[in-house]
Write a structure and sequence with these properties.
heterodimer, A: about 220 residues, mainly alpha, MetI-like fold, about 85% helix, B: about 325 residues, alpha/beta, 14 strands
């Protein structure tokens, strides 16, 4: 294929990748924050100690983290069909991507929240702050720089997963690279997709680092 | 203002239970500055954290400003906490907020309207002398400045009581001095009652009206600083004024003399020597300014005849001195 034949393929594929990654990142942010915060507050010395819930959350996160993404993607096909109605295609891929990334991000949220000195939390308690205020204004706000850089890492991991998902019907740059670049020996396509993915990752990393730096006043 | 009785707190540890506070009774009157002195592990931090229920005591009662805290429900406890300020050894400021916003946080949790918050924050920063640093972040401040922010924040909701958890332990001596001066000033101007824990003698010396010495979860002595100084064998007196020099000299009577109040500056030793024509040697001693009083403590050797010496002792006691035998 000549470069002029390659370029028209790149536009839609990039769009698909951005859509998959964008949507799953959004859901991962919500789900990961929720699980991570719940995990921290339900701990024994937490703001709302609930040992059983804490144990269950820990187990789920560990399970999710230990199943290889390729297997997870296939294994949850019925669930995917339940959620989006289909089991292949760009929209369908968002489900396994999110399910795979939530435990990953939840762990990052957990460790970012642990960085907040316990002293600061007990100071807020001593001032008579409510638990909601402590979570919102102390834990999440103080951990924000760490959360942002952790989220950046997560989005980049999702991009990696999305290339894998592409091969089983998700579309996007990963699919392009495999179907043209690999199966049909179209080196041009391979080069173009790799370059594009590298650029996307670089941009995300740069923006993430910048935002984290701006937010940090330590 | 603070009334604690029969307070006990035990922690579960791997090797059996650890009793952190073992039956403490404490009374801090309105406007008093009460210092609990002890080494680390004595249980003083746990005691302090029980006063605002950061730690739940296992037994005993805690009453602050007439409200019994141990039986309060969560919401009422939150409201009661608005009336109890607290400052911390490592300041515990929000790193993501400016100085002004850190102080404002305390007002947000008490539900102060936004418009009011601004004027109150300015007022508080003025009070602690940090008006020009309002927009700085904690990381840009010195330790002393951070503690001033901590104090401003603790006072935001106009509490009657301030709890101080080793507030000067992370500061150098000069900064400690300036923070102590600020606390004393706030105590006098606002009638603020202060309960503090510390391992530094200076803190007790400089600002406390009353004090307790805590060891292994218990108070080994407690009372007003003036009384403790007069109390024979008081550890606090001994630590406040360490006396060295020989405890016995052949042919002489060696005594420790403690005076406080106006007597501290009276020429009591000169009078003694003049009246009895007895030779007096000063072996060691000091006169210090305390929060509420001046106090002096000396180790003396009286070189007269046993008869003269015993008259001299009577004279010292008449003059309000506490006389003891060196330990």
């Amino acid at each position: 294929m000549t470069w002029s034949e390659v370029f028209p393929l790149l536009g839609p594929a990039t769009q698909q990748t951005l859509w998959m990654v964008g949507m799953s990142s959004l859901f991962t942010a919500i789900g990961g924050l929720l699980v991570g915060v719940l995990f921290i507050v339900t701990e024994r010395d937490g703001l709302l100690p609930i040992a059983p819930l804490n144990a269950v959350l820990g187990l789920i996160v560990n399970l999710g983290r230990s199943i290889p993404f390729l297997i997870l993607m296939v294994a949850i096909t019925p669930f995917t069909r339940l959620v989006v109605g289909v089991s292949i295609g760009t929209d369908a891929v968002i489900v396994p991507l999110t399910v795979g990334a939530i435990p990953f991000f939840a762990r990052i949220v957990e460790s970012a929240l642990r960085e907040v000195p316990p002293d600061v939390v007990s100071a807020a308690t001593a001032m008579g702050a409510t638990r909601t205020e402590i979570v919102r204004k102390v834990l999440l706000r103080e951990a924000l720089p760490g959360l942002v850089s952790g989220f950046t890492v997560t989005v980049i991991a999702i991009i990696g997963y999305s290339a894998m998902a592409g091969t089983v019907g998700g579309g996007g740059l990963g699919y392009l690279a495999i179907s043209y670049g690999y199966y049909r020996f179209e080196t041009n396509v391979m080069i173009a997709t790799v370059v594009l993915i590298v650029i996307i990752v670089q941009i995300i990393q740069a923006v993430g680092a910048l935002v984290a730096r701006r937010l940090s006043h330590r | 203002m603070i009334e604690i009785s029969g307070l006990r707190k035990t922690y579960r540890a791997k090797r059996g239970d650890v009793v952190a506070v073992d039956g403490v009774d404490l009374h801090v009157g309105e406007g008093e500055v009460f210092g609990v002195l002890g080494r680390s592990g004595a249980g003083k931090s746990t005691l302090l954290r029980c006063v605002n229920m950061l730690e739940r005591p296992d037994a005993g009662t805690v009453t602050v400003d007439g409200v019994e805290l141990t039986t309060l429900r969560r919401k009422q406890l939150r409201l009661a906490r608005h009336g109890i300020g607290m400052i911390h050894q490592h300041f515990a400021l929000l790193s993501s907020r400016t100085v002004a916003a850190n102080v404002a946080f305390a007002l947000e949790v008490t539900g102060t309207p936004r418009a009011e918050r601004k004027t109150r924050v300015a007022e508080l920063l003025e009070l602690v002398g940090l008006s020009d640093r309002a927009e700085a972040y904690p990381a840009q401040l010195s330790g002393g400045q951070k503690q001033r922010v901590g104090i401003a924040r603790a006072l935001a909701a106009r509490p009657k009581v301030l709890l101080s958890d080793e507030a000067t332990s992370a500061l150098d001596p000069e900064t400690t001095e300036s923070i102590l001066r600020l606390l004393l000033d706030l105590n006098r101007r606002l009638g603020l009652t202060i309960l503090l824990i510390t391992h530094e003698m200076t803190v007790v010396k400089r600002i406390c009206t009353s004090a307790a010495v805590m060891r292994d979860g218990r108070f080994v002595e407690s009372g007003t600083v003036a009384d403790l100084l007069q109390q024979p064998g008081s550890e606090l007196a001994r630590d406040l004024f360490p006396l060295d020099g020989p405890v016995a000299i052949p042919g002489a009577t060696v005594i420790d003399v403690t005076v406080s109040g106006a007597d501290a500056d009276a020429p009591i030793i000169a009078d003694l020597a003049r009246r009895f024509e007895t030779d007096v040697r000063i072996l060691g001693g000091a006169v210090e300014t305390l929060a509420t009083t001046r106090a002096g403590r000396w180790r003396l050797a009286l070189l007269g005849s046993p008869d003269d010496n015993s008259k001299a002792l009577d004279f010292l006691r008449e003059r309000g001195a506490q006389v003891g035998v060196p330990a």
